[in-house]
């Protein structure tokens, strides 16, 4: 049963969740094949603060959204009466949802609010989400956004019993975050929200419990953002239509991608001398298959060329069509070589990130006592960033996040409005 918390009972709280890096198996995972992915150290943060009126406000400075609704105007939704979460479009009623790039994010909020909170009289609150992840670049920014939003609304509805720490809490967060991904993308596999919820390094097959991978091979990975915008929804639809036209051919490609992921699992667990070389091979093979599916881009091919000249294999990661590429850096590559590659990539206008793979999933922290909110947010960000050991706060744009959050509470949040 849903029990909404009266506003006076809740103190501000902060939810965070990581982005993800898919090493092998994107797209094929949508069709029931296995993929391998891990969390990255860059995270999304949702700060939830109470209000004295009955409005709910959603502030998304990263995509220039600042909307406010009267709780009584938002639709009550029963998920079992909608054939798919994306149908929320037909139920927004008189709640005005902006056109443009923020529309999907707001619709997701309306959907989750309508399912989780609208049944009960709910006092007002503000949710502000900021992210250290590049938006729409293949690192799972939508999934971490959906995980923090789902966790925040579940927390407000009184459905989390252990602040998101128990298996049952995480399962619930993951289910609702998946619904959020469905609002935006139609047919996601669930891998992105699973990584953002559980964190770690895992093999994922749709409908099965994710399998934790304990890689004995510490991976050195370079992520390069092409800065070419792409639409995950359109790329998923493109692969679907190709498969509808040529089912046997495309199923063969998807099966090969599955075999690549299965080989990768055994390589991650083995110790042989040739493991790294074989991983480089299957990275190239996996990219070739993705290119066959039509989801590569000239910019991604350029990254492959530059890194190949330094004996490093690269592939697209995430939905493709632009976004990011990952490069496996051989353990014997000198720092000088890596810096050379990074310089050449930067020269082409690409942006490189260095991150570790694997780290904590969703985390919720509450503001307690009389601590000023700005101080508390800063200390929480410090603590939550330290969940991902390799992230240095200054590398990750920490200052930007704090300044967006620090002008909360609500009276000052108007300054964030575009
Ligand atoms: N910081 C954010 N604030 C608000 N909305 C966000 C934020 N980050 C992501 N989103 C939502 O997610 C959308 C981008 O999701 P999309 O799936 O296209 O890219 P991605 O998740 O970064 O890449 P991929 O799915 O390939 O890993 C944005 O248009 C927005 O709706
Ligand atoms: C392209 C895809 O496989 C990964 C997007 O990060 C889509 C999905 O699994 O939902
Ligand atoms: Mg996404």
Automatic annotation (TrEMBL):
It catalyses: (R)-mevalonate + ATP = (R)-5-phosphomevalonate + ADP + H(+). Residues 119-200 form the GHMP kinase N-terminal domain. Its EC number is 2.7.1.36. Belongs to the GHMP kinase family. Mevalonate kinase subfamily. Pfam families: GHMP_kinases_C, GHMP_kinases_N. Keywords: ATP-binding, Cytoplasm, Kinase, Lipid biosynthesis, Lipid metabolism, Magnesium, Metal-binding, Nucleotide-binding, Steroid biosynthesis, Steroid metabolism, Sterol biosynthesis, Sterol metabolism, Transferase. Residues 278-343 form the GHMP kinase C-terminal domain. It comes from the Eukaryota. The keyword Nucleotide-binding applies. GO terms for cellular component: cytosol. It is an enzyme of class 2 (transferase). GO terms for biological process: ergosterol biosynthetic process; isopentenyl diphosphate biosynthetic process, mevalonate pathway. This is Mevalonate kinase.
